[in-house]
Amino acid sequence: MSSKNxxxxxxxEYIRQGEPSQKEKSExxxxxxxxxxxxxxxxxxxxxxxxxxxxxxxxxxxxxxxRLFSYYEERKERNQIEEKTREADIVSxxxxxxxxxxxxNFSSVEWIGIHRRLFEGVLKEAGKIRDYNISKRExxxxxxxxxxxxxxNIRETMEYDFNTEKQFSYNGLSMEEIIGHLSKFTCDIWxxxxxxxxNTQATAVFMIKYLNTLGFQ
Length: 217
Known about the structure:
This protein is mostly helical. The chain has helices at about 5-15, 20-40, 45-55, 60-75, 80-100, 110-120, 155-165, 175-190, 200-215, and strands at about 135-140, 145. The chain folds into two domains: about 5-100, no CATH class; about 110-215, Orthogonal Bundle (Fic-like fold), CATH 1.10.3290. It starts with a helix and ends with a helix.
């Protein structure tokens, strides 16, 4: 059985049989670890144990993050694969934290802040807008090349998309129309790709929190 199936089965158990607070925490951790999979990163068994302790109320999310930092501090001699696992573990704990917070402000500033909080101490450009153009093949799009917004227009494009969304009314729309509109908005801001790295995860966390404010769970 793959490690992916292991964490899914372990955490799903809390959703099926756990208390409401455990269900909410488990869903946050499953999303967090799943987003690492999307980026081709694997979390460690130690993270899964830490997540379980947090879900069961044995430790706080602060303690979970401290445990992870301490764990990797003791393993200073890391190869490239272990360094990627460290990134996946730490960012997972931060995603779980952010998804557990109810506060949210629909703005580009919030999006930038989410990126900074996710990657501070992991990426040197955490929370910074890129200052050069990028184009790369995205494996999430089956290897298709994507050309992102020109770095000279990033902030203007962000503000345009956010202002357009703020003015949009969902009144009277069918669920299919709502989902179609939200999907387009998500694609539009993702294709801006304002950050050097970590765009997909920051966008996903932002959109999940936005969807929660719209009543989606």
